[in-house]
Protein backbone atom coordinates (compact mmCIF):
# COMPACT_ATOMS: atom_id res chain seq x y z
CA UNK A 1 0.00 0.00 0.00
CA UNK A 2 0.98 3.62 -0.45
CA UNK A 3 1.17 5.23 3.00
CA UNK A 4 1.60 8.87 4.05
CA UNK A 5 3.25 9.31 7.46
CA UNK A 6 3.03 12.73 9.11
CA UNK A 7 5.41 13.29 12.02
CA UNK A 8 7.78 10.91 10.23
CA UNK A 9 10.86 12.43 11.89
CA UNK A 10 9.46 12.20 15.43
CA UNK A 11 10.07 9.61 18.15
CA UNK A 12 7.36 7.31 16.85
CA UNK A 13 7.78 8.26 13.20
CA UNK A 14 11.42 7.08 13.27
CA UNK A 15 10.16 3.60 14.15
CA UNK A 16 7.07 3.69 11.93
CA UNK A 17 8.71 4.69 8.63
CA UNK A 18 11.28 1.84 8.48
CA UNK A 19 8.72 -0.67 9.79
CA UNK A 20 6.32 0.13 6.94
CA UNK A 21 9.16 0.08 4.38
CA UNK A 22 10.33 -3.33 5.68
CA UNK A 23 6.85 -4.77 5.29
CA UNK A 24 6.71 -3.78 1.63
CA UNK A 25 4.71 -0.56 1.77
CA UNK A 26 5.54 2.53 -0.26
CA UNK A 27 6.08 5.32 2.25
CA UNK A 28 5.68 9.04 1.71
CA UNK A 29 7.04 10.93 4.72
CA UNK A 30 5.90 14.45 5.61
CA UNK A 31 8.22 16.92 7.31
CA UNK A 32 8.93 20.65 7.66
CA UNK A 33 12.54 19.91 6.73
CA UNK A 34 13.89 18.35 3.56
CA UNK A 35 15.45 14.91 3.84
CA UNK A 36 17.35 12.76 1.39
CA UNK A 37 16.11 9.18 1.14
CA UNK A 38 16.11 6.23 -1.20
CA UNK A 39 13.46 3.95 0.30
CA UNK A 40 11.16 6.79 1.31
CA UNK A 41 9.59 9.63 -0.65
CA UNK A 42 10.00 12.74 1.52
CA UNK A 43 7.57 15.59 0.98
CA UNK A 44 7.91 19.03 2.50
CA UNK A 45 5.04 20.76 4.24
CA UNK A 46 3.82 22.53 7.34
CA UNK A 47 0.60 21.21 8.81
CA UNK A 48 0.04 24.23 11.05
CA UNK A 49 -0.47 26.32 7.88
CA UNK A 50 -1.77 23.60 5.59
CA UNK A 51 1.28 23.88 3.36
CA UNK A 52 2.11 20.95 1.11
CA UNK A 53 -0.84 18.93 2.40
CA UNK A 54 -2.81 18.52 -0.84
CA UNK A 55 0.17 17.15 -2.74
CA UNK A 56 1.10 14.90 0.16
CA UNK A 57 -2.24 13.08 0.35
CA UNK A 58 -2.60 12.55 -3.40
CA UNK A 59 -2.76 8.87 -4.35
CA UNK A 60 -2.20 7.36 -0.91
CA UNK A 61 -4.20 4.42 0.46
CA UNK A 62 -3.79 5.36 4.12
CA UNK A 63 -2.44 8.14 6.31
CA UNK A 64 -0.66 7.55 9.61
CA UNK A 65 -1.04 10.89 11.35
CA UNK A 66 1.63 11.36 14.02
CA UNK A 67 2.57 15.04 13.67
CA UNK A 68 2.20 16.92 16.90
CA UNK A 69 3.68 19.84 18.77
CA UNK A 70 3.14 19.48 22.48
CA UNK A 71 2.86 22.88 24.10
CA UNK A 72 1.30 24.02 27.30
CA UNK A 73 -2.41 24.70 27.23
CA UNK A 74 -5.19 24.22 24.72
CA UNK A 75 -4.21 25.77 21.36
CA UNK A 76 -6.76 26.07 18.57
CA UNK A 77 -3.84 26.77 16.20
CA UNK A 78 -1.93 23.68 17.30
CA UNK A 79 -0.61 21.06 14.92
CA UNK A 80 -2.99 18.52 16.46
CA UNK A 81 -6.03 20.72 15.83
CA UNK A 82 -5.39 23.09 12.90
CA UNK A 83 -3.03 20.57 11.29
CA UNK A 84 -5.49 17.70 11.65
CA UNK A 85 -8.22 19.84 10.11
CA UNK A 86 -6.04 20.68 7.06
CA UNK A 87 -5.10 17.03 6.69
CA UNK A 88 -8.67 15.72 6.95
CA UNK A 89 -9.98 18.27 4.45
CA UNK A 90 -7.27 17.40 1.94
CA UNK A 91 -7.70 13.65 2.54
CA UNK A 92 -11.47 13.95 2.06
CA UNK A 93 -11.04 15.83 -1.24
CA UNK A 94 -8.46 13.30 -2.46
CA UNK A 95 -10.67 10.35 -1.49
CA UNK A 96 -8.15 8.78 0.91
CA UNK A 97 -9.97 5.75 2.35
CA UNK A 98 -8.29 5.48 5.77
CA UNK A 99 -6.59 7.73 8.33
CA UNK A 100 -5.05 6.37 11.52
CA UNK A 101 -4.63 8.98 14.24
CA UNK A 102 -2.30 8.34 17.16
CA UNK A 103 -3.55 9.71 20.46
CA UNK A 104 -2.77 9.11 24.12
CA UNK A 105 -4.27 6.68 26.63
CA UNK A 106 -6.33 8.79 29.01
CA UNK A 107 -6.96 11.64 26.55
CA UNK A 108 -10.68 11.13 27.12
CA UNK A 109 -10.39 11.28 30.92
CA UNK A 110 -7.71 13.85 31.65
CA UNK A 111 -8.76 16.25 28.91
CA UNK A 112 -6.81 19.35 29.89
CA UNK A 113 -4.13 21.29 28.03
CA UNK A 114 -2.38 19.25 25.36
CA UNK A 115 -4.69 16.29 26.02
CA UNK A 116 -7.67 18.54 25.33
CA UNK A 117 -6.20 19.11 21.87
CA UNK A 118 -5.72 15.35 21.42
CA UNK A 119 -9.33 14.62 22.38
CA UNK A 120 -10.66 17.36 20.12
CA UNK A 121 -8.50 16.07 17.26
CA UNK A 122 -9.96 12.59 17.86
CA UNK A 123 -13.43 14.11 17.45
CA UNK A 124 -12.40 15.82 14.19
CA UNK A 125 -11.14 12.47 12.89
CA UNK A 126 -14.30 10.60 13.92
CA UNK A 127 -16.58 13.18 12.30
CA UNK A 128 -14.50 13.72 9.16
CA UNK A 129 -16.47 11.36 6.94
CA UNK A 130 -13.36 9.46 5.90
CA UNK A 131 -12.49 5.98 7.19
CA UNK A 132 -10.60 6.19 10.46
CA UNK A 133 -8.95 4.33 13.30
CA UNK A 134 -7.67 5.93 16.50
CA UNK A 135 -4.78 4.32 18.36
CA UNK A 136 -4.29 5.59 21.89
CA UNK A 137 -0.85 4.65 23.17
CA UNK A 138 0.76 4.84 26.59
CA UNK A 139 4.04 6.76 27.10
CA UNK A 140 6.94 5.84 24.84
CA UNK A 141 10.18 4.64 26.50
CA UNK A 142 12.08 7.54 24.92
CA UNK A 143 9.62 10.10 26.21
CA UNK A 144 10.00 8.80 29.75
CA UNK A 145 13.77 9.03 29.36
CA UNK A 146 13.50 12.69 28.35
CA UNK A 147 11.45 13.37 31.48
CA UNK A 148 14.03 11.58 33.64
CA UNK A 149 16.90 13.50 32.02
CA UNK A 150 15.14 16.73 33.00
CA UNK A 151 14.65 15.51 36.58
CA UNK A 152 18.27 14.34 36.79
CA UNK A 153 19.54 17.82 35.97
CA UNK A 154 19.28 18.44 39.73
CA UNK A 155 21.38 16.79 42.45
CA UNK A 156 18.25 15.21 43.96
CA UNK A 157 15.37 13.73 41.96
CA UNK A 158 11.90 14.32 43.34
CA UNK A 159 10.17 10.94 43.71
CA UNK A 160 6.41 10.49 43.90
CA UNK A 161 5.93 6.79 44.69
CA UNK A 162 2.22 6.97 43.83
CA UNK A 163 2.78 7.57 40.11
CA UNK A 164 2.26 4.54 37.81
CA UNK A 165 3.74 4.23 34.31
CA UNK A 166 3.20 1.77 31.49
CA UNK A 167 5.99 2.64 29.06
CA UNK A 168 5.86 1.12 25.60
CA UNK A 169 8.37 0.48 22.86
CA UNK A 170 7.85 2.56 19.70
CA UNK A 171 8.73 -0.34 17.40
CA UNK A 172 5.87 -2.32 18.95
CA UNK A 173 3.50 0.63 18.46
CA UNK A 174 4.72 0.73 14.84
CA UNK A 175 3.91 -2.98 14.42
CA UNK A 176 0.45 -2.32 15.85
CA UNK A 177 -0.03 0.48 13.28
CA UNK A 178 0.91 -1.90 10.47
CA UNK A 179 -1.83 -4.30 11.65
CA UNK A 180 -4.36 -1.47 11.88
CA UNK A 181 -3.63 -0.32 8.34
CA UNK A 182 -3.99 -3.91 7.10
CA UNK A 183 -7.32 -4.24 8.92
CA UNK A 184 -8.71 -1.16 7.14
CA UNK A 185 -10.87 1.60 8.60
CA UNK A 186 -12.43 0.08 11.70
CA UNK A 187 -13.92 3.31 13.00
CA UNK A 188 -12.80 2.29 16.45
CA UNK A 189 -10.61 3.55 19.29
CA UNK A 190 -7.92 1.07 20.24
CA UNK A 191 -5.64 1.30 23.26
CA UNK A 192 -2.11 -0.05 23.31
CA UNK A 193 0.33 -0.10 26.21
CA UNK A 194 3.58 -1.55 27.46
CA UNK A 195 3.73 -4.99 29.13
CA UNK A 196 3.75 -3.83 32.76
CA UNK A 197 2.61 -1.07 35.05
CA UNK A 198 5.53 0.05 37.18
CA UNK A 199 5.91 2.65 39.89
CA UNK A 200 7.93 5.83 39.60
CA UNK A 201 10.55 4.55 42.04
CA UNK A 202 11.36 1.51 39.90
CA UNK A 203 11.31 3.67 36.76
CA UNK A 204 13.87 6.05 38.24
CA UNK A 205 16.12 3.48 39.95
CA UNK A 206 16.34 1.23 36.85
CA UNK A 207 17.11 4.23 34.68
CA UNK A 208 19.82 5.57 37.03
CA UNK A 209 21.46 2.13 37.04
CA UNK A 210 21.32 1.81 33.26
CA UNK A 211 22.78 5.26 32.70
CA UNK A 212 25.41 4.89 35.47
CA UNK A 213 24.08 7.91 37.33
CA UNK A 214 23.83 8.52 41.07
CA UNK A 215 21.21 10.84 42.49
CA UNK A 216 19.49 11.26 45.82
CA UNK A 217 15.77 10.54 45.68
CA UNK A 218 13.59 13.06 47.44
CA UNK A 219 10.16 11.62 48.31
CA UNK A 220 7.34 14.06 47.66
CA UNK A 221 3.91 14.35 46.07
CA UNK A 222 4.00 15.90 42.60
CA UNK A 223 1.60 18.85 42.47
CA UNK A 224 -0.89 19.75 39.75
CA UNK A 225 -3.65 18.26 37.65
CA UNK A 226 -1.36 16.53 35.14
CA UNK A 227 0.19 14.42 37.92
CA UNK A 228 -3.16 13.87 39.63
CA UNK A 229 -4.38 12.28 36.38
CA UNK A 230 -1.27 10.12 36.17
CA UNK A 231 -1.68 9.13 39.85
CA UNK A 232 -5.30 8.19 39.22
CA UNK A 233 -4.13 5.68 36.62
CA UNK A 234 -5.76 7.46 33.67
CA UNK A 235 -2.67 6.97 31.48
CA UNK A 236 -2.40 3.21 31.84
CA UNK A 237 -4.54 0.59 30.13
CA UNK A 238 -5.53 -3.04 30.60
CA UNK A 239 -6.40 -3.40 26.91
CA UNK A 240 -4.83 -6.41 25.21
CA UNK A 241 -2.66 -7.29 23.41
CA UNK A 242 0.09 -5.38 25.17
CA UNK A 243 3.64 -4.71 24.05
CA UNK A 244 6.30 -7.18 25.22
CA UNK A 245 9.42 -5.03 25.66
CA UNK A 246 9.64 -3.84 29.25
CA UNK A 247 11.30 -0.71 30.64
CA UNK A 248 14.17 -2.85 31.94
CA UNK A 249 14.63 -4.54 28.54
CA UNK A 250 14.62 -1.15 26.85
CA UNK A 251 17.35 0.06 29.18
CA UNK A 252 19.37 -3.19 29.25
CA UNK A 253 18.87 -4.61 25.75
CA UNK A 254 20.04 -8.17 25.06
CA UNK A 255 22.92 -8.37 22.58
CA UNK A 256 21.55 -9.34 19.14
CA UNK A 257 21.36 -13.07 18.39
CA UNK A 258 23.96 -14.19 15.87
CA UNK A 259 22.25 -14.68 12.52
CA UNK A 260 22.22 -17.92 10.53
CA UNK A 261 24.86 -16.31 8.35
CA UNK A 262 27.17 -15.89 11.33
CA UNK A 263 29.52 -18.69 10.32
CA UNK A 264 29.65 -17.51 6.73
CA UNK A 265 30.25 -13.93 7.75
CA UNK A 266 33.07 -14.97 10.01
CA UNK A 267 34.80 -17.42 7.71
CA UNK A 268 38.09 -15.81 6.89
CA UNK A 269 38.64 -15.14 3.19
CA UNK A 270 42.24 -15.41 2.01
CA UNK A 271 42.56 -11.65 2.27
CA UNK A 272 40.46 -11.05 5.36
CA UNK A 273 41.89 -9.32 8.43
CA UNK A 274 41.81 -12.67 10.25
CA UNK A 275 44.41 -14.10 7.93
CA UNK A 276 46.30 -10.81 7.49
CA UNK A 277 46.45 -9.31 10.96
CA UNK A 278 48.74 -6.52 9.81
CA UNK A 279 46.05 -4.97 7.67
CA UNK A 280 44.04 -2.11 9.05
CA UNK A 281 40.89 -3.80 10.37
CA UNK A 282 38.87 -0.67 9.75
CA UNK A 283 39.56 -0.43 6.06
CA UNK A 284 36.61 -1.73 4.09
CA UNK A 285 38.26 -3.12 0.95
CA UNK A 286 41.27 -5.36 1.17
CA UNK A 287 43.87 -5.32 -1.58
CA UNK A 288 44.27 -8.28 -3.88
CA UNK A 289 40.69 -9.46 -3.54
CA UNK A 290 38.80 -7.21 -5.86
CA UNK A 291 35.25 -6.60 -4.91
CA UNK A 292 35.65 -8.16 -1.48
CA UNK A 293 34.02 -5.97 1.11
CA UNK A 294 34.20 -6.57 4.79
CA UNK A 295 30.77 -7.89 5.79
CA UNK A 296 28.91 -5.42 7.93
CA UNK A 297 26.56 -6.72 10.60
CA UNK A 298 23.48 -4.66 11.39
N1 LIG B 1 5.58 10.74 23.28
C1 LIG B 1 4.77 9.84 23.88
O1 LIG B 1 5.10 9.23 24.92
C2 LIG B 1 3.41 9.58 23.27
C3 LIG B 1 2.56 8.67 23.90
C4 LIG B 1 1.34 8.38 23.32
C5 LIG B 1 0.97 9.00 22.12
N2 LIG B 1 1.80 9.91 21.56
C6 LIG B 1 1.39 10.53 20.29
O2 LIG B 1 2.15 9.94 19.25
C7 LIG B 1 2.33 10.87 18.19
C8 LIG B 1 3.80 10.99 17.85
O3 LIG B 1 4.47 11.51 18.99
P1 LIG B 1 6.05 11.68 19.03
O4 LIG B 1 6.45 11.59 20.47
O5 LIG B 1 6.68 10.78 18.04
O6 LIG B 1 6.19 13.20 18.56
P2 LIG B 1 7.55 14.03 18.43
O7 LIG B 1 8.74 13.19 18.65
O8 LIG B 1 7.37 15.27 19.24
O9 LIG B 1 7.54 14.44 16.88
C9 LIG B 1 6.65 15.38 16.41
C10 LIG B 1 6.57 15.29 14.89
O10 LIG B 1 5.60 16.24 14.44
C11 LIG B 1 6.12 16.92 13.32
N3 LIG B 1 5.58 18.28 13.30
C12 LIG B 1 5.61 19.19 14.31
N4 LIG B 1 5.07 20.34 13.88
C13 LIG B 1 4.72 20.15 12.58
C14 LIG B 1 4.10 20.97 11.59
N5 LIG B 1 3.77 22.25 11.85
N6 LIG B 1 3.87 20.45 10.37
C15 LIG B 1 4.23 19.17 10.09
N7 LIG B 1 4.81 18.33 10.98
C16 LIG B 1 5.04 18.82 12.21
C17 LIG B 1 7.63 16.90 13.48
O11 LIG B 1 8.18 16.83 12.17
P3 LIG B 1 9.23 17.87 11.54
O12 LIG B 1 9.92 18.56 12.69
O13 LIG B 1 10.14 17.00 10.71
O14 LIG B 1 8.40 18.78 10.71
C18 LIG B 1 7.89 15.59 14.19
O15 LIG B 1 8.13 14.56 13.27
C19 LIG B 1 1.69 12.18 18.68
O16 LIG B 1 0.40 12.29 18.18
C20 LIG B 1 1.65 12.01 20.20
O17 LIG B 1 0.60 12.76 20.79
C21 LIG B 1 3.02 10.22 22.08
Q: First CA to last CA: what distance?
A: 27 Å
Kindly state the number of beta strands: 11
Helix residue percentage: 25-40%
Query: What is bound: which ligands?
Result: NADP nicotinamide-adenine-dinucleotide phosphate
Q: Rg, please? A: 23 Å
Based on Cα principal axes, name the global outline.
globular
CATH topology: Rossmann fold
Low-pLDDT stretches: 270-298
Based on the coordinates given, report the CATH architecture: 3-Layer(aba) Sandwich
Q: What does this protein look like?
A:
The protein has 298 residues and is an alpha/beta fold. Strand 1 (2-6), helix 1 and strand 2 form a beta-alpha-beta unit. Mean pLDDT is 88; it is low at 270-298. Helix 1 (13-22) packs across helix 6 (170-183) and helix 3 (79-94) packs parallel to helix 4. It has 10 helices and 11 strands. The site of NADP nicotinamide-adenine-dinucleotide phosphate has 27 residues, from helix 3 and strand 5.
Q: What's the quick description here?
A:
Helices cover 32% and strands 17% of the residues. It is of the alpha/beta class and 298 residues long. Bound molecules: NADP nicotinamide-adenine-dinucleotide phosphate.
Key descriptive features of the protein:
298 residues; alpha/beta; Rossmann fold; 7-stranded parallel β-sheet; two-stranded parallel ribbon; 10 helices; 11 strands; 17% strand; disordered C terminus; binds NADP nicotinamide-adenine-dinucleotide phosphate
Which SSEs are present, and which pair or pack?
Layout: E1 2-6, H1 13-22, E2 26-31, E3 40-44, H2 53-57, E4 62-65, H3 79-94, E5 98-104, H4 114-126, E6 131-137, H5 141-151, E7 156-159, E8 164-165, H6 170-183, E9 189-192, E10 198-199, H7 200-210, E11 216-219, H8 225-231, H9 247-251, H10 262-265
Parallel strand pairs: 1-2, 1-4, 2-3, 4-5, 5-6, 6-9, 7-11
Antiparallel strand pairs: 8-10
Helix pairs in contact: 1-6, 3-4
The chain binds NADP nicotinamide-adenine-dinucleotide phosphate (NAP).
Amino acid sequence: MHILVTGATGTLGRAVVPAFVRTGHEVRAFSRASHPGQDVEWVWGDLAWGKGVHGAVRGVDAIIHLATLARKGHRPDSVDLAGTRWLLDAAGEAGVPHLVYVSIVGADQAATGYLEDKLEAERLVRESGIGWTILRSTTFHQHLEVLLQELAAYPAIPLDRSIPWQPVCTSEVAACLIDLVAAGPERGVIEYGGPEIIGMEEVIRTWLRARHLHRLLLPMRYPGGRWAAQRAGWHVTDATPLGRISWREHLFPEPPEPSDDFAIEHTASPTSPATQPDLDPNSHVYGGDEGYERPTRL
